Amino acid sequence: GAVVSQHPSWVICKSGTSVKIECRSLDFQATTMFWYRQFPKQSLMLMATSNEGSKATYEQGVEKDKFLINHASLTLSTLTVTSAHPEDSSFYICSATRTSASYEQYFGPGTRLTVT
Amino acid sequence: GEDVEQSLFLSVREGDSSVINCTYTDSSSTYLYWYKQEPGAGLQLLTYIFSNMDMKQDQRLTVLLNKKDKHLSLRIADTQTGDSAIYFCAEKADSWGKFQFGAGTQVVVTP
Predict the structure, then answer these.
(1) pLDDT single digits (tens) A46-78
(2) Which of A74, A108, B27, B67 has the most CB atoms within 10 Å of its CB?
C-alpha cells in the first residue's frame, strides 16, 4: 500500500508555455501533499505544502504565481509551472501523507521537466 | 536553522558491508529516515527510527542512532550491485514538521 504516482514522468516544453504535473495517491487518501524540486546531484528542496481543499503554503523564495498548486481532492494534487523558462528545468517530486500530522511520507517517482 | 550532513560518496565492493553516516543539528528531531534514490526515480523509504531508539535492524539494514552526538548511520550488510544508488538521510522534528534532507550519499558497488 501507499503508492504515489506522478504524470508525466518526463516532459519537454518550449519556453513561455505552461506545463501541469499530476501527483496521485493510488491506494490511500492523502490529506497533505508536498512538492519538491531536485537539482542534479543535490538534495530535495521543499517548494510547497498543500492540504486538500485549502491553499498551498509556499516555502520562502518560491514564486506562488509561477508554481501553481492545486489539491482539489484527497488523491490528486497538481503543480503547474507557468510561463516556463530553461531555469525551471529540474526534477520535480511529490510526496503524500495520510494525515497532516504523520511521520510517514510516501514519494512519487518524480517528473523530469526540460524547458527548451 | 536545521542542517543534515552526509558524506557525498562511498565506494564498496560487492559482498562487503557499507556504512553511510549522517549528522544532524536539530536536537528536537523525533524521526530519522533513510531513503534510497535510484537514477531517474523518486525516493524509496528504506527504514526509519524514532529518537527514543538506539538501533533498528531490518534484514540487511541496520540503523544506529547516537543522540548525544546527533549521528545516524545506515549499515548495509552483504552489499549488492542493486544497492548502488543515492542514499538520503532525513529528519523530522515532529509529526507536523517538515522533512530536512541531507545532500545524499552516492554509493557505488563494484564487483
Answers:
(1) 999 998 888 899 999 999 999 999 988 999 999
(2) A108
